[in-house]
Amino acid sequence: MLGGIDLRDFLEGPWAGRRAILADLDGCLLAGGTVLPQAAELVARHARQLWIVSNNSGDTGATLAARLAGLGLPLGPERLVLAGEQCLLRLAKAHPGARVALFAAPPLRALARRIGLRPDRDCPEVALLARDPGFDFADLALLMALAHRGVPVWLTNADPSHPGPDGTPLPETGALWAALAAAVPVAPAGGLGKPAPDLVETALRLAGAHPAEAVFLGDTDATDGAAARAVGVDFVLIRRPGTPAAAADGPRVGAARC
Q1: Overall domain count for the chain
Q2: Contacts for 241-244: CB closer than 8 Å, 24+ residues apart
Q3: What's the pLDDT score for residue 81?
Q4: Cβ atoms of residues 153 and 129 within 8 Å
Q5: pLDDT band at 256 (very low <50, low <70, confident <90, very high)
Q6: Which residues have C-beta within 8 Å of that of residue 78, sequence separation ≥ 6?
Q7: 114-128, 163-177, 240-254: lowest mean pLDDT where?
Q8: Helix (H) or strand (E) holding 84
Q9: Cβ neighbours of residue 76 under 8 Å, at least 6 residues apart?
Q10: Do the Cβ atoms of 240 and 219 come closer than 8 Å?
Q11: What's the CATH code of the domain at 92?
């Protein structure tokens, strides 16, 4: 990826004074379990303005907040707007008490039970696919069989990968979906990960901010930038570690209003 600016440039620029700072997580503040330069400073200086808007579908706000605190990034779970958690909440609202085949990590499976969904892989009414490091061939075969039978499959987020500590791509939910769709061409029945605007809209509502009062920091224009623009929020592209410096015409921003 070419272009973009460092977090240091953002902190020294005019956008940091916005009422709400929405930020992606992987590739922007973290790379795997590594805190990226100036991420701790961003949290320390702007914690009251900062809202994480992430396609993370392996954590809940509570589990991610605990992990971030251990990395020196103290943010309350209420400030973490996550695709997996938000997708489960929406599914529970649309299908209260539904039997759900969950292809998800333990934090999301536990959340599903707490909000009244019933895990059931034998006779589900709906399936949900999230990022699950334990997903294996048997899971893929079962998910294919369910989709073939016509069971609606909700997809938390369509990202094929996210960057590891050295920038190497790590598989994401979209890669699992691609394997499913290669054998059983189906469209996801639901989902709200970026580039859809839903997570950005949720963060703005929680922040009590209008789009013109916010800025979105992200490392991927096609997802982060598209979601921000769909809601009318200015977007600042943050350069991933190991990528070239910004082009001569300066950082890519979306009609920044100071």
Answers
A1: 2
A2: 241/31, 241/36, 241/166, 241/167, 242/166, 242/167, 243/1, 243/2, 243/4, 243/167, 244/2
A3: 98
A4: yes
A5: very low
A6: 61, 206
A7: 240-254
A8: helix 83-94
A9: 65
A10: yes
A11: 3.40.50.1000
Neighbouring C-beta atoms of residue 26, cutoff 10 Å: 22
Cis check for the bond before 195: say yes or no (omega within 30 of 0): yes
Asked if residue 179 and residue 88 are part of one domain, the reply reads yes
Rounded Cα distance, 18 and 35, in Å: 23
Which residue type sits at 62?
A
Termini Cα distance of the chain: 26
Is residue 45 situated within a structural domain? Answer: yes
Higher pLDDT, 157 or 191: 157
pLDDT digits (tens, 9 = 90+) for 153-163: 999 999 898 77
Residue 255, CA distances (Å) to 4, 11, 258 in order: 14, 18, 10
Task: Tell whether 178 and 93 lie within a shared domain.
Answer: yes
Q: Which residues fall within 8 angstroms of residue 35, CB to CB, at 6 or more apart?
A: 29, 71, 72, 73
Higher model confidence: residue 238 or residue 187?
Answer: 238
Q: Whole-angstrom Cα distance, residue 10 to residue 234?
A: 13
According to DSSP, the residues that pair with 161 across neighbouring strands are 171
Helix (H, G, I), strand (E, B) or coil at 26: strand
Residue 150 exposed, middle or buried by CB count within 10 Å (0-12, 13-18, 19+): exposed
Distance between CA atoms of 215 and 138, rounded to whole angstroms? 42
What distance in Å separates the CA atoms of residue 163 and residue 79, rounded to the nearest whole number?
22
Q: Are strands 20-23 and 50-54 parallel, antiparallel or unpaired?
A: parallel
3 state DSSP class of 47: coil
Residue-range definition of the domain harbouring residue 204? 7-55+194-237
